[in-house]
């Protein structure tokens, strides 16, 4: 781990305690390429590069497995694009695109074991996919028919959390529970938790508190920060003075920056981090260095705050393209495979679209259900009165 | 029959102990609740007997206390969080409102939230700022939460156990200036339901309703009024959300007069909710408007003048006079 002052430009006045704004910006710009600590196994050009520390964690990824990761990313991107279109056509109220973050999410999602638990924010459609949540199960939140339809406890994938950073504490508490139940250790049933959040969330107090609590209770939790460079309109330099992964040092646990557009590196680093947690060496912070290629949500307009050139630059680092190139060049995978995945993606999108259009709207009684586990007579009276009021119209 | 003479603080302690013995998933967590036993000693001895994994001295972060309790509840635990003082709950308010209160609804019942948040509340102990507040209305306004306040050792002993046994999140208010008051507690009794109000003194002239520390104030007022030939009925509300106003309606239909007593400021409060509902349910029985004796709509004052802020016997009797003179 390098000294926190390393990233300050050498020309800085050594007597200057607080770097100027220009220096801060320069320091961050220096990490546009991820910086020297970036873990990468697959270059943007699709070349497999050696990493003495993490190669072992991807050693079992043969051509079949790599094809599987490619398929995951293509399918996820396809339904993500379909959802964007559904919003434009008035079928969804809003959509939160993950375009560009497929590798960060599929790598992390595929690193999990069935017994591990995930706490997503609201953009983790790729992680949901890996946890066996059908894409159609995500639709209700964005169509406005529910707030989350799957069973988070049984599926080991918590409901989407919209309040930024809240889930970091919930994940930490869950991980403390895993430890209290002696699920941390060398056994095959050892468990860990992974918590997803973005660069904007790192400014939230709950993320700080999550780091503190996880550290002092040795909680088996991987904090997985997808740094996609933008918190709606605010660039990373509005959230931090230091690269995010280095914050872990201050809390006393390891922080690693991984190329978030490299699915193999995300898989390897997350596998390592989860295993660290399962065996009692948690927590771990991973910063997946990536880019939000689309808007924050379908309600957002990035042309107001960022240059189109930036997107063009990141398109050269596309997470899917580099795997395709690698499969072709290093494994001789033929066009038939890619055509097959594309066809499967289109089928998924068609099913996804039809499901969305056919989704029923719940009745008003949904509003009154499951507010409480146990009786609340005043609420029951409210429900009864409102349903009777509605029934009055039906009788007319 | 097993009985014990307990202070209110000790009654909560014994209730916590009983709940922890009954269910290994019950955890106690908060600032200084372990070795120290809490600043009011409510958790005294629990860490020694149940260990550090069931009685957690937490970092000083209220959002952390609630937020990790939510995660522990998702995992199947039943955390009992202690917020050291009423005025310190606000860093945890986001987690209470956004996660604790809503997870059951959000998940359509798949994620129960059996979490208790204990908050010593109210003034009268000569404390500095942020140590004497009555924030219960803020929680009563949040759908998904249940809110109760105990007022005596018997209720404290039973209500804490019932709150822990509930699959709903319960904000549990303890009247800190009554922590040291004693009563005989029958440990074998069958307790009344958690969300039920109770007539603690029957009467016929007018009805007083309160919760927490002011129940005793109301009872004292009733004794004083007796000397003037007035027979006041006193109701301990006990449950703030959901409200159980049937005993109040029944009483008001007999007495025709109601005075609501609360330490909290009056604006948009539990006391205003009671007034609204009573006029709705008992309009034709009321001989006078529902009157309220409350704290003022000010921040809690410096302690040397807190006696002016807190509803006392004289202000309660003055309200009774005004009601009867209507």
Automatic annotation (TrEMBL), chain A:
Domain of life where this protein originates: Bacteria
The GO terms describing molecular function are: magnesium ion binding; oxidoreductase activity, acting on the aldehyde or oxo group of donors, disulfide as acceptor
What cofactor requirement does the entry state?
Answer: thiamine diphosphate
Any single biological process term in GO: branched-chain amino acid catabolic process
Q: Which InterPro entries match?
A: Alpha-ketoacid_DH_E1_comp, DH_E1, PdhA/BkdA, THDP-binding
Q: Where is the Dehydrogenase E1 component domain?
A: 71-344
Q: Which UniProt keywords apply?
A: Oxidoreductase, Pyruvate, Thiamine pyrophosphate
- Pfam families to which the protein is assigned, alphabetical: E1_dh (PF00676)
**Record bears the keyword Oxidoreductase:** yes
Enumerate the residue ranges of region (Disordered).
Answer: 1-20
> Do you know which CDD domains this protein is assigned to?
TPP_E1_PDC_ADC_BCADC
Name of the protein in question: Pyruvate dehydrogenase E1 component alpha subunit
TrEMBL record, chain B:
Task: Give every Transketolase-like pyrimidine-binding domain span.
Answer: 6-181
UniProt keywords, alphabetically = Oxidoreductase, Pyruvate, Thiamine pyrophosphate
MF terms (GO), sorted A to Z: magnesium ion binding; oxidoreductase activity
Q: Per its UniProt record, what Pfam families does this chain match?
A: Transket_pyr, Transketolase_C
Q: Which cofactor does it need?
A: thiamine diphosphate
Q: Read off the Gene3D superfamilies from this record.
A: 3.40.50.920, 3.40.50.970
Matches recorded under InterPro entries = THDP-binding (IPR029061), Transketo_C/PFOR_II (IPR009014), Transketolase-like_Pyr-bd (IPR005475), Transketolase_C (IPR033248)
This chain belongs to the protein called Pyruvate dehydrogenase E1 component beta subunit
Q: Which organism is it from?
A: Pseudonocardia thermophila
